[in-house]
Amino acid sequence: MGLGEPREVMVAGRRAVRELLRSGRPLHRLYVAESAEGLAPLVSEARRAGVPVQRVPRGWLDRACGGVAHQGIAAATAVVPYTALEELLERLIQPGGRARVLVLDHLQDPQNLGSLVRTADAAGVGGVVVPSRRAAGLTGAVWRASAGAVAHVPVARVASVAAAMETLKGAGFWLVGADPEGERLLWEVDLTGRVGMVVGAEGRGLSPLVRRRCDVRVRIPLL
């Protein structure tokens, strides 16, 4: 973590807080809006885990969550540490087994990043690779959009997406780029083995350098 970066993040929303509690990550404090209802199970789970619970005005929670929809509950926790790419590969690669990684080429919108992390978790993807600059990071908004999946999916932050792709290739990954101009349809491609799915940024899609490093580019046809 660099100088000046936050050491704590506010995770808001009932599902996100539930997944955070289940992940076993340490929580600093649970905040519950004074007017909120239906939160007794989450509050009890937090107290069993030894997490301090504090009732606060809804307006305070609105400000603390920075506009993220909190549903009356939020938890303060340490910022999720990024995983080194080499460490991620060690966790992913098993002899003779399948391995899935999602590579994101400079996504800007935290909502999109969170949704993709959630989808990756649901699809059995073992990790996500994001660039360290000019891209969304693991903020509270990403936690909320991922419905807490950030607590379960390791994220590696790299200086260069293109260089990370070369490292993945060296580890035996086949890189499949999502591109509306792709030469093949998604369901025409064999996705067994070690596969890295590469998704581009909003608007511009894959950058030219990243596009050239994909082994194949696939598209989903739209009417």
What's the overall average pLDDT, rounded? 86
- How are helices and strands ordered from N to C? EHEHEHEHEHEHEHEEEHE
Kindly name the structural category.
alpha/beta
Measure the end-to-end span. Answer: 45 Å
Strand order of the largest sheet: 7-6-5-10-8-11-9
Give a quick account of the main beta sheet: strands, pairing sense, barrel closure: 7 strands, parallel
Poorly predicted residue ranges: 1-5
**Helix coverage percent:** 25-40%
**Mass-distribution shape:** elongated
Please give the radius of gyration in angstroms.
Answer: 19 Å
Strand composition percent: 15-25%
**DSSP helix count?**
8
Count of β-strands: 11
List keywords for this structure.
single chain, 223 residues, alpha/beta, 8 helices, 11 strands, elongated
Give a description of the structure.
The protein is of the alpha/beta class and 223 residues long. The protein is built from 8 helices and 11 strands. The strands form 2 sheets. Strands 7-6-5-10-8-11-9 form a 7-stranded parallel β-sheet, with helices on one face. The longest helix is centred in the middle third of the chain and has 13 residues. The N terminus is likely disordered.
